[in-house]
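Marked as duplicate of an earlier ticket. Keeping the data here for the record.
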Amino acid sequence: MPTFQQCLDANPAQLMTLGASIAGAAAQLTQLGATYGQTVAGLAASWQGKDYQELVKWSTEVGLFIGRSDAAMLTCAGALEGTGAALMATCFAMKATKQAAEAVGYKVLPTPFVILGPSQWSQVSSAGPAAPAVLAAYQSGAIAFTTALVSMYTAVIAQDTAGYAIIRTALALSPS
């Protein structure tokens, strides 16, 4: 599970790039399997008998293995690309929300938790009889920012967990 700071520092686009690379590798594997099958089939004209029949059986097993591998790779690629896109949107929103909180004077802790910053405390101190109202307004803003950041952080963890589950399932089904 990533920390809040890791979410802020993350570059989920790398997951999308990795997914695209895996999809490309799956396409190459498919082509390799097709070439292998064509080569074995092409030997039929010059090779007959039990040895050739065993090669054909083996070729069928290789084809099935490649098919299962392709399916696992494409599932992983899709999970990485989808998870990367979702994480990218959520992490971007987290960064923007953190920056917005800091821009108005709040301090964002790494938990994530938002507290009043020095300039806000100064304004509360100098508000005189209105200090309780000013404090309440700033605390309300801190709660709103904290709620938003916690919600987004929870979404990142859920997105990460879901992507991981898809990948683990695909790998468990792949041939070893």
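See parent ticket for discussion. Strands lie at 107-109, 113-115.
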